[in-house]
Design goal:
Length: 759
């Protein structure tokens, strides 16, 4: 097992971070510190590493620890067999990947009875060793005569050579360097090929573009690979990886020191061909597909995480009264009123689509009069635009000073929340749809506080999220939510347990205890009162305190991101300036006069002091943008209203690796393909747009039969066609890829006399 110093050095080298910073992060994590806490309040120790770098260290350390544990287990297993040589031990200790370790262990791993085992039982291992050594003594037939043994089932020289070849094939298939080479060769030169099945011929599917598909593995995008896998799983596609098999076999023979002048050369080459076809090809293809799946998963999870972060950090309306409407037709529109703190006040139901519109207007006006609001949030589901038009018609007749905003809000995941245990616990006596209206209103007031109650997978901002490795997705999304919550900060006296559980160091159980304590004892009047919560000790307080806010506390620092461990320092600074802390906090002119160099010490460095100064200038500042209601074309409410060439306002609802989906107010998001996002080539749509961005788009195609809308962010056709830009970019990328492969080939095959056979 590697020491911490060795691990720090390895990880630092891989990530380009100093070993000292890596070791500091490892020690802090081992001591129970959370990533948000380390990134915010231990900058001097880590050299100012951010959350991404700290999580990279955490993930890499976990991988290397698992690798070392597996290494120790393999060494013990082989030693137990009495086959651990100094050379093998060195190879195992030098292995840097799990796949490399398993390749080295493969010949010693317990396996079911094989043809090679049977041949060994017949005493043919010596003949196999002669073939492997590429001997020049005698001929195969002559040498094989010595191994004929009727009692063991070896009736002829041909039987002996056949059994020995089985042994050679197995030896070849279990050679670590052969497997490693073939894995790389397939990854670098292979093509993924898919075709439609009989089922595909019988019914239409969304996989039609892959019915006759072929692409180099290097060019196969992650979302394409996940789509092909789903097509296979649903029975519409058959897929495989194709390579130049002759070249692969020749290369394997070269790695086994094939000698064309040896009488046994032909037998070795045939055994290599048998090893490839019978033992290696499908196994290595599985390995490569697993690697592709892992890469595609990471790519998809990263896209999902970026989108989720943008959605969670969407601009909040803030502490304002809101009316939420969950639209419906037959069952009516559920209307719910909330006060500025998000507290539910009253609900009603109106039926503007099926009953008298005048009656619905009368009821809604009366409801709005009882509950004046800053905004009316309307879900964007079925009948959403019709309901919006109905509500706007009422609002526009009101005095201008009294008019609330009318805002369409995404309903994604609202139904899941409505039926959840969290919703039942909050509103046990309310109908599901009323809970949905409440959630829609709260999403407008504070998207972060409401969306944390929903499984992030259900908010519809990813690609193939149900196809990726679920533990990876779950962990990544939890990290994103945790990061967003702690970046914004949490108001201790209004936060739900679902929000509090993401505060650094708290967790689900402690969050419920905090809420229970608040309900039993009233609001917290200071951060320090957290220590009165049952089970909440100094360590949890240390991790959480800086991320919670207690507005109205006697100490103004309780409403800021200044950590309680630095309160005495701030008091000292205020005293030195001849003012109280209350006078200092929020006084930009006064704070700007602080000479931070006076307060640098072994415990507090310049980075922490700069953070404190920034917080004193704008205490408890919200990093989210100011709220601006989105606007849609009121004349366009359904897909049938769209015409090619229309220029419309929209809001980005999802960003994937192949483009961005945009809500233009017709119940069906349109797709802006990556090639139509801007007037230049981009390899990643997130370079151009993010979730919740307001954009102008041009309608370029409407497919009513399939309810598909194609959009472009290029509002005219005068710009250079995106295909030209894409071609330029692809040519550049292809040149770089070819150069990279040449360099890799030179490194990998420089010591192989059969390198000329590999292409």
């Amino acid at each position: 097992m590697q020491t911490k110093e060795e691990l720090s050095s390895v990880i630092g080298g891989e990530l380009g971070i100093s070993a000292v910073s890596v070791r500091a992060v490892m020690d802090l994590l081992e001591g129970g510190a959370t990533v948000p806490f380390i990134a915010r309040y231990r900058k001097e120790a880590t050299g100012g590493l951010d959350e991404v770098q700290i999580r990279s260290i955490e993930e890499r350390q976990a991988y290397l620890n698992e690798l070392n544990e597996r290494r120790d287990a393999i060494l013990a297993a082989i030693e137990g067999l009495g086959k651990l040589t100094p050379e093998l031990k060195k190879q195992i200790n030098d292995a840097t990947t799990k796949a490399g370790l398993e390749d080295l262990y493969l010949p010693y791993k317990p396996k079911r009875r094989t043809r090679a085992m049977i041949a060994r039982e017949k005493g043919l291992e010596g003949l196999a060793e002669i073939i492997l050594s590429q001997s020049h003594d005698g001929t195969p037939e002559l040498v094989a005569q010595q191994y004929i043994d009727a009692e063991k089932g070896v009736e002829s020289a041909e039987d002996a050579l056949e059994g020995a070849s089985d042994i050679v094939a197995e030896v070849v298939s279990e050679k670590a360097d052969v497997r490693d080479y073939l894995r790389q060769y397939m990854s670098e030169t292979g093509k993924i090929v898919s075709e439609g099945t009989d089922k595909a011929a019988e019914e239409r599917s969304k996989f039609e573009q892959y019915y006759n598909y072929s692409a180099p593995l290097n060019d196969c995008k992650g979302h394409s690979f996940l789509a092909i896998r789903r097509g296979e799983r649903e029975g519409f596609l058959r897929a495989s990886i194709e390579i130049d098999e002759d070249s692969a076999v020749n290369s394997i023979a070269g790695l086994m020191h094939f000698d064309a002048t040896s009488p046994f050369g032909g037998m070795l080459h045939e055994a290599c061909e048998d090893a490839f076809e019978r033992l290696l090809q499908s196994s290595i293809e599985s390995d490569v597909r697993v690697d592709m799946k892992q890469n595609a998963d990471r790519e998809a999870v990263d896209v999902f995480a970026q989108n989720a972060e943008k959605l969670l950090l969407a601009a909040p309306l803030g502490a304002e009264a809101v009316i939420g409407i969950d639209p419906g037709v037959r069952t009516g529109c559920k209307v719910a009123a909330l006060d500025a703190t998000g507290k539910f006040l009253e609900n009603t139901t109106i039926y503007p689509q099926v009953h008298s519109e005048a009656e619905a207007e009368r009821d809604l006006r009366a409801f709005m009069k009882r509950h004046p609001s800053r905004a009316i949030a309307i879900g964007n589901g079925t009948a959403g635009r019709e309901t919006e038009a109905f509500v706007r018609g009422i609002v526009e007749t009101m005095p201008e000073a009294e008019r609330p905003y009318v805002v369409m809000v995404s309903e994604s995941g609202a139904s899941i929340y409505s039926a959840s245990d969290v919703a039942r616990e909050e509103f046990p006596d309310l109908d599901l749809t009323v809970r949905g209206a409440i959630s829609i209103a709260r999403r407008l007031q504070d998207p972060l506080a409401e969306l944390v109650k929903i499984d992030p997978k259900s908010i519809g901002v990813g690609q193939y999220q149900h196809d990726v490795y679920q533990p990876l997705l779950k962990r990544k999304l939890e990290e994103v939510v945790e990061s967003c919550v702690n970046r914004v900060g949490v108001e201790l006296n209004t936060a739900s347990s679902e929000l509090l559980k993401y505060v650094a160091g708290i967790g689900p159980s402690m969050a419920k205890k905090i809420v229970a304590h608040r309900e039993q004892n009233g609001n917290f009047t200071s951060r320090a009162q957290l220590l009165k919560v049952s089970g909440l000790g100094p360590k949890t307080f240390e991790q959480a305190a800086g991320f919670i806010r207690v507005r109205g506390s006697e100490n103004p620092l309780d409403a800021s991101a200044v950590h309680p461990e630095r309160y005495k320092l701030v008091e000292r600074i205020a005293k030195d300036m001849g003012h109280s802390v209350n006078e200092l906090v929020g006084n930009h002119a006064l704070v700007s006069k602080i000479d931070i160099k006076r307060y640098i010490s072994d415990e507090v460095g310049e980075m922490t002091l700069n953070d404190i100064i920034a917080e004193l200038q704008k205490p408890g500042r919200d990093p989210r943008a100011q709220f601006e209601p989105p606007k849609f074309n009121e004349a366009v409410t359904k897909i049938e209203d769209l015409k090619v060439g229309m220029i419309l306002d929209g809001v980005v609802t999802n960003v994937t690796n192949f483009g961005a989906f945009v809500d233009i107010g017709v119940h069906q998001d349109g797709l802006v393909h990556i090639s139509a996002l801007c007037d230049r080539y981009v390899s990643n749509p997130s370079e151009v747009v993010s979730v919740n961005d307001a954009v102008k788009v041009r309608v370029i195609e409407v497919d009513l039969a399939r309810s598909r809308i194609a959009l472009s962010c290029r509002l005219t056709d005068e710009a250079k066609p995106a295909s030209d830009h894409r071609a330029d970019g692809q040519k550049t990328q292809q040149r770089q890829d070819r150069k990279g492969r040449r360099v890799q080939d030179q490194k990998q095959f420089s010591n192989n006399p059969f390198a000329n056979l590999k292409r």
